[in-house]
Amino acid sequence: MKRRKLLSYCSIFLSGFITACNSNSQKQNTEISINIPKNLKFTITDVNNLQELEASYGELRKTLEEILDIKIEFLPVENRTAAAAALVSDKLDIAFAGPSEYLILNSRAKSIPIIGVKRPNYHSIIVVRANSKIKSLSQLKGKTIAMNRIGSTSGHIGPTKLLMDAGLDPKNDVKIVMLGDQGLKALVKGEVDAWVNASDTYNDKLAKEKFLEKDFDIIAKSPLLPNDVFVANNRLQANLVADMRSRMLTNQDKILQSIILADKKYQGASLTTANDSDYNMIRQVYQNMGEGSFL
């Protein structure tokens, strides 16, 4: 009887010992499951030189470095296509991109969305002069429209969808000219019939050019556009990307403060989870334009 009790106690002891060992082993595996790189290369897709990156986004770089506990270094790229190439060649680890830029990075480099930056008043608007006879989108047929640049979410893709939804063919029913920052001046001079812009930068642009809001009419406004997004190189460990996402969400106030220092259009923004499907609207516009292969 005593022997049976002894064997029973030994069995319990060994069982507990094995369980503790397995628990410690699992804990150790969890702790070492994230392979932390010594540094991460980071860029902003629409800033193409190191000096401007440091001047505008230096605070963001420092904030990310503090939050992620990894050294962050800037890697300037010429454009979104160059950013995709840098991701493919492993020269770039993280990028902050606009919605349209994200599609290029995802289709060409299979980049992974980390976190989205949601701007609460981010719409495309189509603007005419207040004295214009154009009061609706259908009246733009045969007219000239100033857009920003090819691929711009608010300055090309968003307004193109507005035209399509109104039954207009952007290639045949209207003349589109890409004028960058000169579109508003061209509208005032009568060189174009309408101008497109993002709603959250509209008033600032009017003020900068010393124009009054009463001198213009907004004839169309899109639904809220997809979010800007931080993306990761798909070769980064999945657990590392998940850890970065968690840390960024937890410290979103610090990140947003740093982003707003670089660009006031992000005032009122919030961080949110980002999913590839959030950008299907932009894909659809490219396909409807017959330019799906661009992606």
From TrEMBL:
CDD domains: PBP2_PhnD_like. The keyword rRNA-binding does not apply. GO terms for biological process: transmembrane transport. GO terms for cellular component: ATP-binding cassette (ABC) transporter complex. Keywords: Signal. Gene3D superfamilies: Periplasmic binding protein-like II (3.40.190.10). Residues 1-20 form the signal peptide. Coiled coil: none annotated. The keyword Signal applies. This is Phosphonate ABC transporter substrate-binding protein.
